[in-house]
């Protein structure tokens, strides 16, 4: 139950932020932008464009055929 409560609290905050960012959007449009389930997500290490650079730890999400990575988890 605690996990469900946290999940709903996070979705509620996301909904509020999206309402502020898109004030003329309908509730149904905003609901479609809320958290989705990702196929895979976690940390990986990558190098920069030069092969001599050190590996950097990045958070990634893989959703369908789209791979995105960030410095920190969102």
Give the rounded overall mean pLDDT. 83
Strand fraction band? 25-35%
Regions with pLDDT < 50 over 5+ consecutive residues?
A: none
Helix content: 25-40%
Order of helices and strands: HHEEE
What is the β-strand count?
A: 3
Secondary-structure map:
Elements: H1 2-21, H2 27-33, E1 40-46, E2 56-63, E3 66-70
Antiparallel strand pairs: 1-2, 2-3
What this model shows, in words?
This protein has helices spanning 2-21, 27-33, and strands spanning 40-46, 56-63, 66-70. It has two domains: 1-35, no CATH class; 38-73, no CATH class. It is 36% helix and 27% strand. It has a three-stranded antiparallel β-sheet, with no helix packed on it. It contains two helices and three strands, in the order H-H-E-E-E. The model has no long low-confidence stretch (mean pLDDT 83). It is elongated. The longest helix is centred in the N-terminal third of the chain and has 20 residues, at 2-21. It is of the alpha+beta class and 74 residues long.
């Amino acid at each position: 139950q605690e996990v469900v409560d946290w999940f709903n609290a996070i979705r509620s905050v996301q909904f509020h932020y999206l309402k502020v960012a898109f004030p003329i959007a309908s509730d149904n449009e905003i609901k479609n932008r809320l958290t989705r389930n990702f196929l895979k997500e976690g940390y990986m290490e990558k190098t920069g464009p030069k092969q001599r650079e050190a590996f950097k730890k990045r958070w990634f999400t893989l959703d369908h055929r789209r791979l995105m990575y960030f410095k920190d988890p969102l």
